[in-house]
Amino acid sequence: MAITLKSGYKMPIVGLGVWRMEGKDIKDLLINAIKIGYRHFDCAADYQNEAEVGEALAEAFQTGIVKREDLFITTKLWNSDHGHVLEACKDSLKKLRLDYLDLYLVHFPIATKHTGVGTTSSALGEDGVLDIDTTISLETTWHGMENLVSLGLVRSIGISNYDIFLTRDCLAYSKVKPAVNQIETHPYFQRESLVKFCQKHDICVTAHTPLGGAAANTEWFGSVSCLEDPALKGLAEKYNKTVAQVILRWGIQRNTVVIPKSSKLERLQENFNVLDFELTKEDMDLIKSLDRNYRTNQPAKFWGIDLYA
């Protein structure tokens, strides 16, 4: 299954996120994922593993497991590179060993102090607060993104972690409209209004953290995962599926793209097998009732400032 983006290209509705994948394990994980059937991979300069992903992709192409045109590869512009969009994109392409990206996203709607293309440190001021660059507007950044499309380096461009106000502004100043808004959304953080707004304006919503962060966000942010929710466990028993499969299926039936991350082969297989069943309207409504407006991924822990405030 795939969603046709505003740009006309098709984006597989299930992808694999590579955040926090360790370099030494990435090649085997990605090769196995491709063999399972994954064709969509979500990367970012900030994940600091584009070079390892590139090695895996090169091996997959060279051995004939898959062709470049069969894959949908996303990566993202880091905060410190808003004033260096072209150079940052070329750096990611070089590391990923690709001639073009299927999707390039503005990772966060904030420009920070430039620390050098290819580096993704979050510079903090003496006060411990993120060193935000107030001289670079999001409009300027977006026009840099549009230039990548003109140059043929990127097929589709989009945004990430944008709210309704910022998304509306992007629609107003853009010549090439954003094809995607990648946001945290899961049963405990459904963000129905933002999802509706994006979809009304033909912006595909990709759900990062679609399982509520699971163990990773519990470790980093001390958050609670919806994977332990009794109601979701009950639905998993009803459908003879895992809780994760039920949650991912719910995301798909919301017409959102889901990009769960897993480093375990068994989970990779499970997360991909979510197209052979369908949740009833009653069960979709049940999950809708679980919303807590609960964000699990909160970078304020590292940045000294809540950008969502």
TrEMBL record:
Pfam families: Aldo_ket_red
Active site: 47
Span of domain NADP-dependent oxidoreductase: 15-291
GO molecular function annotations of the record: aldose reductase (NADPH) activity; aldose-6-phosphate reductase (NADPH) activity
Annotated substrate binding sites: 107
Site feature: Lowers pKa of active site Tyr: 76
One cellular component term from this protein's GO annotations in UniProt: cytosol
Keywords: NADP, Oxidoreductase
InterPro entries recorded: AKR, AKR2A1, Aldo/ket_reductase_CS, NAD(P)_OxRdtase_dom_sf, NADP_OxRdtase_dom
Family indicated by similarity: Belongs to the aldo/keto reductase family.
Alphabetized PANTHER family for the sequence: 2,5-DIKETO-D-GLUCONIC ACID REDUCTASE, NADP-DEPENDENT OXIDOREDUCTASE DOMAIN-CONTAINING PROTEIN
Protein name: Aldo-keto reductase
Organism annotation: Solanum tuberosum
